[in-house]
Amino acid sequence: MTSPNLIILYVKDPGESASFYRNLLNREPAVEAPNFVAFPLDGGFTLGLWRRSKVEPQPSAIGNRGEVAFMVAGENAVAKQYEDWRQRGLPIAQELTELDFGPTFVVLDPDGHRLRVCEPDK
């Protein structure tokens, strides 16, 4: 059986987005081309950043229709991650708050993609 292992975000400028994610993830991309950048992630996943104008077939719309979530475990781990990203000056779309599934917050990447931090499911 096949399993998903690649998340692709459509971006305006892969170089700008690569700089953002290089800093955010504290790692270097495995692939860095003019129209596509790929960062290997833990657990066998890869984050791809594809120049929006080169996507085939072209997407029918753009906007916030999903999120990339980072689950962090440990006592006050979400709050610690919030403080780290806030101090880095990342754009906060949702301040640290408590929702049905626990503490969470959302930041935005250069293209407005929503990056949510939350606790793993128990």
TrEMBL record:
Using the record, list the residue span of the signal peptide; answer none if the entry has no such feature: none
Looking at the record, the residues that make up the VOC domain are 3-120
Q: Which domain of life is it from?
A: Bacteria
Q: Which PROSITE patterns match?
A: VOC
Q: What is this protein called?
A: VOC family protein
Q: From which organism does this entry originate?
A: Rhizobium bangladeshense
Taxonomic lineage of the native organism: Bacteria, Pseudomonadati, Pseudomonadota, Alphaproteobacteria, Hyphomicrobiales
